[in-house]
Amino acid sequence: MGLQPRRTLADGRALPLHALPPALTGSLLAAPAAIFLVLAFVVPIAEMVGYSVTAHVTQGTTVGGLTLENYARLFRSELYWVVLLRTLRIALVTSLVSIPIAYPLAVVLARGGPFWSRLVMFTVISPLLVLVVVRAYGWKLILAKQGFLSWLIKGVGLSASPPALLYTEWAVVIASAHVFLPFVVLPLAGAIGKIDPAVEEAARTLGAGRWTMFRRIVVPLSLPGLAVGVTLVFSLTASAYVTPQILGGNFAAMLGTLVQQQILSVNDWPFAAALATVLLAMTLLANLVLLRLFERRFGRWVGRGGGR
Amino acid sequence: MTEVAVSARREAVRLRLAGLSKAYGSSAVVDGIDLQVEPGQLMALLGPSGCGKTTTLRMVAGLVAPSGGDILFGEDRVTRVPVHHRNVGVLFQNYALFPHMTVAGNVAFGLEMRSSDRGAIARKVGEALDLVHLTAFAERYPAELSGGQQQRVALARALAIEPSILLLDEPFAALDRKLREEMQIQIKDLQRRVGITTVMVTHDQEEALTMSDRIAVMNAGRIEQCGTPGDVYDRPATVFVAGFIGTTNLWHGTVVRRDGAEALVRTSAGCLLTVRGLPAEAGETMTCLRPESIRVRPAAERSDAAANEALGTLDRIIHRGSLTELHVRLAGGDSLIAARPSGEGEPLAPGQTVLAAWSGDKVHGLA
Ligand SMILES: Nc1ncnc2c1ncn2[C@@H]1O[C@H](COP(=O)(O)OP(=O)(O)O)[C@@H](O)[C@H]1O
Ligand SMILES: [Mg+2]
Questions:
Q1: Domain of A279: which CATH number?
Q2: Between chain B's N and C termini, which has fewer beta carbons within 10 Å?
Q3: Against a cut of 0.90, is the pTM above it?
């Protein structure tokens, strides 16, 4: 990689883009997005993290000065721990639940005919077209104690008094899996679409039935796409606010709700900043671990480094 | 059945296609093919791109359902047997190796579908890798191998399951020329050693001629001729076959005299040829004459051409490696291509008047 020949013009004229070394061209193309991200994301995040360690609130007044008090408070109180663990749990379960739902859809999207793939595409994307509040209230109608789901369960005769799902973690999981489904299905379909159909046929001629072929060929080869999808769903669910607020209520409050309460009700911005920082660190860590894990598994399949 | 040779491998089976057809919508891609491949032989399906070779092969593999006809492996009718129960070895054009499995894992895959005896699988993987000389690469991933090595892995994987039939679809198209020639010999050698009934699809006539026991020349979904490489080269059955395989001089002519088995034919340009074995009732014929059967020598401007000779002007000299082609414009307006080993024969120059001559038994007449 480091042996790119230098391309310079002796008379100092501007280099045409295609004459630049690929690495430099890449950075030029990425520059606008990078600058925007620094200004709109990295700077505010840095400010937030800074805020969480430079002030804390005691008895209603903000005290300045370098401090870890906000974090200490977070770890002292059981309430915050419970919410933190619940947030992780809901994000994890939502990610896991979305996998078996996403696979068949992704297979149809990638390998089905034009009619079916378009139908699936529309079905998967449709929750994103509906306002988040409307969607959450829709699920509320379905999941409520006297809602559609319990009516259905009673009607079919599965149970005389079905458990109420609304205001439980499951309500949040179901609704989150619904909205964030496209974020798994699309990268997964991309990965499945990239599998050479001849590879699947080879497995079939070697004696694999459809299910074995799926399990031993399609699943492992689509794991990179799945990794991207799952980390997206995990991050989006962990940092969601509206859906948990409406469907989880105070019984299944998540970290986002806690941050909102600290800012709007208690007016404790430094503590809210600490909570948000912990949330950020958590999702970041989960993403890194997952992606790292996948990278280690896949490193050799695709050939080492960029040397070929 | 007296003594049966002790062999771990299955007996080779005869492959038979009977009236095999495939239509997409209203267009027949494969149009009622009858074909028989003898046990242990290598049959090439040769034809121009789009003539239905791959479709035929995929029907034999079970990857495409035929619209009509039958496929038989030995005595077994397998037309409706699903692909994963058909026990065929397929070598795909781009090898289609499993990128997430090691070489050994690739070869073991088919065996794992058939048995759960780990010891036996490991032993058979070892044997298959031995067969293609890749034992040292067992733990590599496909991305870490060269094209030729990948192809050998694919071959080992296909053969490890001891398939009834081996199918190759344009197996050498992705390799450069030198490696291609090497692999052609290696695979032919291996096929003969294993003794497996094989069908190979190719559009490359040279490949078909070097590798096959028999060649089926296909055109527009039908088989034009099926025979040994010698048959299709020296005695093409149709104008298409004559034109598709090798370079040939094709002339239309009328029979002017019969002399027992021999007929004297005059081409429209006035050239006279003797043709053997023409059906008695044939009044017209297409004559084919291979370039390498024609000798060219300098001639005087006004000499006469007898039967099996033609007078003309040397138009072009083209060097094609070991052979040199001589393009001759004949007096009557036809043209002729002759070939001779490079560096041999009398020196010639373009523009020169030449006499082309051939022996009468080299002329093949198509009724
Ligand atoms: N799935 C398909 N649907 C429609 N037409 C097809 C399909 N597969 C192949 N064909 C057509 O059948 C013809 C023969 O294809 P193929 O067997 O691949 O030819 P070859 O291998 O001899 O080049 C081509 O004209 C191709 O367009
Ligand atoms: Mg083909």
A1: 1.10.3720.10
A2: N
A3: no
